[in-house]
Amino acid sequence: MAVIAVPWDDKQTGAVHRICTATGLRVDLAAQRLIIANAVAAVVFLAIGGLFALLIALTRWQTIHLLPAIWFYRSITAHGFDMLVAWIVFFEVAGLYFGSTVLLNARLVKPRLGWIAFALMLLGALMVNGIVLAGKADVMFTAYVPLKAHPLFYLGLVLFAVGALIAVGLFFATIVIAKVERRYQGSLPLVVYGLVTAGVLATYTLISGALTFVPALFWSLGWQASFDPGYYRNLFWSFGHPAQQVNLAAMVAIWYSLAAITTGASPLNEKFSRLAFILYLLFINLGSVHHLLVDPGLSFTYKALNTSYAMYLAVLGSLMHAFSIPAAIEVSLRRRGYTQGLLGWLRKAPWREPGFSALVISMFLFGWMGGVTGVTIGTEQLNMAIHNTLRVPGHFHATVVSGTTLAFMGMTYYLIPLIFRRELRLKRLASWQPYVFGAGMSLVTIGMIASGIQGVSRRHWDITFTQAVFPASIPGTVQLTLAIFAIGALIAIAGGMMYIAVVLSSILSRRVHEPKAATLVIGPVDMTPHEHDEEDKRLQPKGTFVLVLAFLLFFATYYFANWWLLGNQSWIVR
Amino acid sequence: MEADRDHRDEDERLPPGQVLFDEIFLFFMLSLVISFILYNVWGLLDLLRTPALVP
Known about the structure:
The structure holds two protein chains of two kinds.
Chain A: E1 6-7, E2 16-19, E3 26-28, H1 29-60, H2 69-102, H3 111-133, H4 151-180, H5 190-221, H6 229-263, H7 270-283, H8 300-335, H9 344-347, H10 354-377, H11 380-386, H12 391-420, H13 427-453, H14 478-507, H15 542-567
Antiparallel strand pairs in A: 1-2, 2-3
Helix pairs in contact in A: 1-2, 1-3, 1-14, 2-3, 2-4, 2-5, 2-6, 3-4, 4-5, 5-6, 5-7, 6-8, 6-10, 6-12, 7-8, 8-10, 8-15, 10-12, 10-13, 10-15, 12-13, 12-14, 13-14
Chain B: H1 2-13, H2 16-21, H3 24-49
């Protein structure tokens, strides 16, 4: 079918849109081009970061220990930037443009600014990768002062942050103009509300990034005599950790989208879900202090209030989503007649639909592995035993990779027909991909956490500390747990390659395809929002309630097991 | 004119909680202020109060 390009109602804007044949949504063509550009850049950096992941995993596997020390640190630096910043932020910018235009029936204001933002981000990302590969910035992702990189490393980070900040500004401007032009009525849709949360958190993150890396650039150039490591760490972690909170908010918004697309689920209570996002907005950035729990100079009150009180309010937000989304799915599936027993709806769920399996695996791994370990790490006393061990990367590989990356991968499959207007190819591969990636990442996380519990350092190339003055008391069993981690990484990388194969074979197809349904493998799903009848006992989310209780039991067991471990080990501060 | 009135009427019917939740720029400001004060400013003041080590 030819492109249906329709001039916007208001001729002054000059915007042109098409009507999506599957959803009936209006797609601003200027926004569509920017979404495609940012999504493609995201996938390219995911592939580059994945290559470094392979090299790192084969080095961490003690039997192979592939890379020499210098290339290990170099690869860690590039991997950290490409995965935690480039892949994620490019994809989030695509998501922000999608949410503010397509979901609001609106046009993107000032698309030219969007291209300037894209160019700055791309230039910055290429500069960082280039200077790291040139061997001028072996400082790892955190680039802790007094480690000093080449000025182009910091300049690249600043350019990337400025570009992303322009994109976030464009997102908010588009929402304001959409309201002024009456493109939508009433409140913002819940998914857009989640993206607004991500946008607000991104603003703080990116301003902090500029405040961190501009002085670091001056210091690297010799214009500034010194940069206090304490100040640097404070500023860096108001960039480094909130960047992952942006992922969290965007990921939860995508969870709600995938639940709606694949099962027709609509939130049980919008106020409840929106309140959870507001808890993120107000409190989640304060959890960054958990990176500073062993830092000298910071008061106990500062550490405890931020990590053990404020952060728990944000955790409450996550627990609210963790109930709300599966409950909405359960009610939707029960409404379709899957009312048998507590979990009959779960057995009948569309497990072949890649968006559904990506959603469930992402939620499970994020919550059961990432969330539980995160709260444990954020407890000051427990942190003494966990800090700087491989348990910390074990936690964030469960959140950012198993959770966010898998959710973004699942969403990509739906953007291909809806935005790229190409048929999704290799559907069978796409159906299996979330399982392969999720299984691999489960092993990665378990292997890292088990190694960390035994004392393996998170950053050091030589975990045995061969030439150290003091002997490292690392037991031989870490050979096994590190092998589990590395084998898991190989499986996850295979899952990542499956994703890239599906995406490339689909988007490189020359034939334009107009989808008839939003789903990919299963038949069309009714996405009309339903009024929830709380009196109808057959539709009550009893199964989700049981799952939530099981989760809380696991949470409590893991948390208190760590206190038990703390009391049973010698006090070595690593 | 009529459309304007309908739009206003619809906004007026919204429950107060929803009106509050819709104030995204209020939460934007609160988020930035809370984060900068409780995380950055408080942390940097703690560091400033720490006496420097004199060799």
